[in-house]
Amino acid sequence: MDRCRAGETWPPDLAEFVALIPESGANPFGLTVGAVMEEYRRWRNESWRYDGSDKYPWSQPVLYHICLEMRSKGIERQMTEGELKRLAERQLTKWAKHVSNGLSVPP
C-alpha cells in the first residue's frame, strides 16, 4: 500500500519484484537488509564497550556472523555503503539457505 501511495504501480514488474523480496523480510529470521544495516551500524558504534564481538548483545545470533563478515570484507575492500548493503543482502540469503537446509546458526 505504501508503494501505491508513493505513486508506484502495482503489481511491480519483475525487476521491482526481485528488489522487493529482501525488503519483505522473507527469510527464517524475519530480518530485512535495512535491519541488518542498522544492527551493523549500532555494533560498529558501540562495540568498544564490550570485551569482544561475542560479548555484544546481538538481537539475533545470525547477526554476529553477518556483521563480522561485513566488517572484514568492508575494511579489506574499502566498500561503500551501497556495496555493504549488497553484501548484507548476500549474507542474509546465504544464512537463510543454510537454515533452510536444516543446519543451525552457530552461537
From TrEMBL:
GO biological process, any: DNA replication initiation
Pfam family, any one: Phage_lambda_P
InterPro entries: P-like
Protein name, entry field: Replication protein
